[in-house]
Amino acid sequence: MPDARGSSEEDRGPGLRPRRLTDEAERTGEPRGTGGLAALRRRCRGLAAAAWAAVRPDRRRTTGYIALCSVGALVGTSVVVGSGSAGAVPDLADIGAWLTSSRTGEAAHANGLTGDVDGKVKLPGMGDHPVSISQDGKTVLVLDEKTGKLVRIDPSQLTVEQSARYGAGLQLVSGGRYAYLVDPVEARVQRIDPVRTTPVGAPVDLGKGPLGKAVADPKGTLWVPVPGKGEVVPFPHGRKAPAIKVAGRSGKAATLLMTLADGRPVVTDTKDGTVTLLERTGRGMRFKLPGSVAEEPSGSVLVPSATAGDVVPVLARKSGRMALVNTRTGSLLTASLGSSDHQYGTPQVLGSKVYVPDRSNGTLKVYDTEAAAITEPVKVTGKPGKLSLFVRDGLLWVNDADNATAVVINSSGHVNRVHKYDTRAPSGRTPREKDRTGDGGGRDPARDPLPETPSRPGRDDTQADTDPPARKPAGRERGGGPTPGKKSPPSDDAEDEPAEPRPPGVPQAESGAGSIRVSFAPSSGTKPTGYRLKGAPAGARVVPGKVGPSGPFTFEVRGGSCDKQYRFTVVAEFAGGRTAESGRSGPARPCVAPGRPQQVTEAFPQGGKGIDLTWRAPANAGEGTTYTVTGGGADTDGSRRNTAARLRNLTNFRTYTLTVAAKNAAGSGGSVAHQVNLSNTKTIPVANNVDDGDDVGVRSEPSTSSGTRRGSIPAGQTPELKVICQTHGTMETHDTYKWKSDVWDRIEWKGGTAYISDLWVGTTKHKEGKFSPEVWSCD
After folding, report:
1. 36: exposed, middle or buried (C-beta count within 10 Å: 0-12, 13-18, 19+)?
2. CA gap 579, 594 in Å, rounded
3. Cis, bond preceding 544 (omega within 30 deg of 0)
């Protein structure tokens, strides 16, 4: 039966969804829940009419009766279940996230595409307590940080299931199929069952606290920083593995901040000013932070616990200086948010924008790396509060647990508001619990939602009330320019006075291999005739020499020393010789940390006992790149600039694992491990085996007076032998030529080793008692 939109019931799929009744109420403008009875009656009449059509004489009566009974059952179910908030069947969006609300003691699930709250769960006993929620694993866990109570949310029922109680002050971390509780004070790690919430095994003592904030990668490996030891301890598959030394300065306590960059563990050492990739076997690439960030006090450097891509933002919140480290390419971009009295929180990156929470006013400061400028802020709550940011499913979620509103932002910058206190959202409360509230709607009168600030008529409420204009130069926050939205009073001769030149935005500098890319926001107001760059090192080439008034607003500085950091300003030139200069950029180097050395090969000197290594330089290696070779006690220093190394005083017939690493002033690149078997087995045929009826013996020892006979080579035959090395043994005499020698060859023989006199092997002969130059000594 077609509905008002011209679609049939069959097009909607089988069954009756109670939530459809709510939708009908919305379309007709009638209230939700029990107020939409008219819509429910219309729905029932439509179902009854469809069933009566099945009872007509030209149809099977049995089918009609069954249909009528089904309609009665469905209508009855609809009346009992209802279409209100508490009675709706949970239908949570696949692209969504859970957000906590301490005021109501609830966790709300929001649709990431619309911002609508599609489900809520009451957290018993957790009201007004700080809680942490973990939704990165296979289950949703919530920890009351004050009481240590841990619960699991069942999204299908919108209820709290298993729970357990642990100590206060713990960290809840999960990833993949694994979940952990970390005690930072006692320096212990407890694995837990994410379904039952119970402990798995005994806690692991890491020896020295306090611990830093841990993270768990998508495979479930836990990474725990131990700053007191300058180490990070991995827990693959829930079991402790050897610690990885990451601190760069021995004897100095580190401040270690963990991040998952696109699922890969990265640690920032704020005291040493480095960002290091971690692998299960040890350290990977290491990048040096610019001086403006590395020199900040450790407590004022902020790094997110996870990012959606390869870029890790590192923010010095006091100075407003920020470094964006690309952990794939090694490039590093420096930018300035402007110093201010605002309370910056931990930044987060989504697409080309960096979002920085401002806890003093409940907004997000937005830095656009493509425009090299600060753009319009995003209003979240408009009130002071602790904003937490995380990226999930390619969306940025921003939540303040103490306020009613959160926001979700997509990669293009579109903002959807999330009203966490929406009482119309489905929940898992029972009728008895609703009755206790006294309002029939599942709402606690003692915990009414906070009143929300109404939006201005005709205005998108995703915009802030006092947003400054886009591409506002960062330097303006220090009083360097006019206040947006305010006009100077007109003067009598205003028509004769030229407009005051305005400076460009503070430039951002991005390091590259052999160059620095400098981008900036153009001047607002009067259009300049062009822009020039200041601060380029002597002898460097600046391309272009001058940027036109319409851009593109980018310079490239080619040259300079990798050992030095450079800062830049941009000068806007106006008609009449007037100029306006921007603030200084953050420091940048004309280089990036080199990658892994390539194509490592080995050769051996005469007689062995050494290895000659050669390799190809990484593609992004500059003149300042040096190399270090380690392994087997044959370590070399890091001042080696050529792509070769000579290792001596080694032991023959051993396997060495050698590691070649590259580094420069920007950081240490990836290393490559290369195994070398220090041996020189040669394939040499039997020679001088006269067909005189006597075979050549193969012995277990280099002697005819001891050992045993392992086999023989028939007279006249000259098979090839794999000669390993030569040694001295008993003196032997050739039966035919009467040559004498005590040199024996160790050979591969029938799956093992044996000896044969060198008199019958075609090696290059030396004087009596001397080894062949082509075969190494067994000693």
Report:
1. buried
2. 39
3. yes
